[in-house]
Amino acid sequence: MPEETIKSFNVGYLQVLDDEGHADKDLMPELSPGQIKELYELMVLIRAFDDKAFKLQRQGRLGTYLQVKGQEASEVGAAYALKKGDWIFPSGRDVGVLITRGHPMHMLLQYRGGDERGMKAPEGLDNFPITIPVSTHIPICTGAAWASKMRREDVVHMAFFGDGATSRADFHEGLNFAGIFKVPAVFVCENNGYAISLPRARQTAAETLAQKAFAYGFEGIQVDGNDIFAVYSAASRAVAKARKGDGPTLIECVTYRIEGHSTSDDDSRYRTKQEVEEWRKKDPVDRLEKYMKKNKILTDEYKQSVTQKTRDMVEKAVEDYEKVPPPEAADFFANTYAQPTEQLKEQMKEL
Amino acid sequence: MARLNVVQAINLALRQEMRKDKRLIVLGEDVGKSGGVFRATDGLQEEFGEDRVVDTPLSEVGIVGTSIGLAVNGMRPVAEIQFSGFLYSAYDQITTHAARIRTRSRGRFTCPIVIRSPYGGGVRALELHCESQEAILAHTPGIKVVIPSRPYDAKGLLISAIRDPDPVVFLEPMRVYRAIKEEVPEEEYTVPLGKADVIKKGTDLTVISWGAMMKYTREALEKADYNAEIIDVRTISPLDSETIINSVKKTGRCLIVHEAPRTCGFGAEIIAQINEKAFLHLEAPVERVTGFDVPFPMYKLENYYLPDERRILKGVEKVMKF
After folding, report:
1. Whose C-alpha in A6, A70, A71, B278 is 20 to 30 A from the C-alpha of B215?
2. What is each CA distance from A293 to A19, A225, A309, B232, B315, in whole angstroms?
């Protein structure tokens, strides 16, 4: 009678860039200086957008907003690994993913300003609308990826969600299907330390979230989520694997939400200032800047011009957002069904 | 023309639509090799292969969630939920995504799925295998809820549901899956969604029902001393209010029979609409014969729960003698 280990798993961890901006040459993904600049500009733009959105909310010009500050490397690094024609499935915080994938910023403000028309992805962009109910878009991503596989298309589907999502049935059932039907999907978990007030350690007793993938029969990897190169490297590999028909991957980006859960949250009730300060030292934008300086890709002039350019882009987005005429009430009747029902036609008259 | 039962009519509709539309796939628990626990998908995997008739894990959220994703990305999935009691866990997917994708994306993404599920009691099944959730589903804007009561409609309504651009929950009355046989044309035809069927003209009162209750209501009415106009609702949402209102205006009396619990059952909505639009034509309060406000009992008690001939005829008398 044997008593033996029949299966064991190794969970990989990847960091390319340390806090001081030193990159490991052997692990560095293939990126031209131009591409590195592009990544940097996207991160700076997202931060400028995020700061502005927060201020607009405080001024009463925007509804509840979920800040993404601190998670820019996770969002940009993963989404940047996709190409035109690929799909994204973002969650509530993922404005960084949407901006990287070309969703117009004034439309994101429009959405956060309570106008659902802002979530209508422009033609040619397969950006699934933001999903508010946590994790429920994960099986949908699996299904959409499955459709691409059935048609033998060269299309990869990427879903984004937080650490809290991994406790829900939809995560389990979505990843389980993805493994069985070997769909071209990449699941990006932005583990930002908290689900509102609940720390990651109370979300699951598992040591990593990445290891959950092995239970579904595919690979999971943990990366430093504040390291743009690590995220991009893992995401590129996962995307290439999906394109080859080798199935899905789960990427856990270990990152940190620098601000509260939302503009309605008081994070001092559940975490210390010191903890937040420790994470500020690992800031993803600062880290990339240090690397770029060391490698002479970033000069003071360039940095200034990026700051100015992104600020202008955000101001223009705010201007465009505030110029959008408010939606008409009849708008909600028009999109409930392909054709309004008799009941809706009657109810319209009450407006 | 062959005489088919409800299960055979559904099978034929799926087969013919799958032959026509390559985007159509069938998925669910035991739908492939075993042909479905009720054999509704019998033989489909043999004809269309494992990629189009897919045995899935035991995972209702997964089945409905991936079907939504398939539909959003250009496929036409027909998902089977083995018993409607298992829909509860998938209800989140139905209400938060299937029903809202068109609205949320302002028409950029749509969700043309059909979720088929055997529903209702009367078959001596296990707990939670006998649910009637049509009212819960009808209270979700963005989806359609269809319930055939006989083989001809089962085929025609399912074809319409498959071709419909919006998500449809298609509830199949398990109790009459094999209890009714009738002529079903071999060629394809549709029965439109959102249209009730006046299955018998009458003058004394209007009797409204749907699903398995239709058969038992008709049989009971044969023993009544009145000339009833009988309406099979067929589509719960969107409701064909016009047919119902016109009939009640004519007869002035109305009885509704459904097996779901009474409080907030779909009968309540029909009564509200009659009050709004035919109040001055009423000769008596609208009467309901329904299941009770209790969890569906296990089968030693189910015949006390389900509306039967005695209760239906009592309801008729009450409406007529008011």
Report:
1. B278
2. 14, 21, 19, 75, 85
pLDDT tier, A329 (very low <50, low <70, confident <90, very high otherwise): confident
DSSP-assigned beta bridge partners for residue B77: B25
Say if residues B79 and B67 touch (Cβ distance below 8 Å).
yes
Secondary structure element (H or E) that encloses residue B24, with its range? strand B24-28
Angle of helix A33-58 versus helix A228-243 axis, rounded to 10: 110
B 114-173 residues with CB below 8 A of A? 141-142, 144, 164-166
Contact B69 A341 (CB under 8 A): no
Residue A124 φ/ψ, nearest 5 degrees: 95, -15
CA atoms within 13 A of residue A47's CA, in its CB half-sphere: 22
Distance separating alpha carbons of residues A318 and A313, to the nearest angstrom: 9
Residues of A in contact with B101 (CB under 8 A): 129
**Residue contact A343–B68, C-beta within 8 A:** no
Residue B1: what pLDDT?
Answer: 81
ipTM > 0.95 (yes/no): yes
What is the bridge-based pairing of β-strands B24-28 and A185-191? Answer: unpaired
pLDDT of residue A1: 86
Task: Supply φ then ψ for residue A13, to 5 degrees.
Answer: -130, 140
Q: Is the peptide bond before B238 cis (omega within 30 degrees of 0)?
A: yes
Distance between CA atoms of residues B5 and B152, nearest Å: 9
| CATH superfamily, domain at A12-348 | Thiamin diphosphate (ThDP)-binding fold, Pyr/PP domains (3.40.50.970)
Task: Round to whole Å and give the CA distance between A71 and A121.
Answer: 23
Mutation pick from B108, B139, B160 vs chain A, by most beta carbons of A within 10 Å, is B108
Q: Which residues in B lie closer than 8 A to residue A133 (C-beta atoms)?
A: 92, 96
Among chain B residues, the shortest Cα distance to A147 is held by: B70
The C-alpha atoms of residue B38 and residue B82 are separated, in whole angstroms, by 9
C-beta atoms of B97 and A140 within 8 A: yes
| B129 in active site | yes
- For B275-306, write each residue's pLDDT tens digit: 999 999 999 999 999 999 999 999 999 999 99
| Residues from chain A contacting residue B108 (CB–CB below 8 Å) | 120-121, 129
Nearest-CA residue of chain A relative to B28? A177
Provide the sign of the torsion angle of the four alpha carbons B158, B160, B162, B166, taken in this order: negative
Q: What is the 3-state secondary structure (H, E, C) of B136-171?
A: HHHCCCCCEEECCCCHHHHHHHHHHHHHCCCCEEEE
Number of CB pairs, chain A paired with chain B, less than 8 A apart: 132
Structural domains of chain B ordered from first start? 2-184 (3.40.50.970), 197-320 (3.40.50.920)
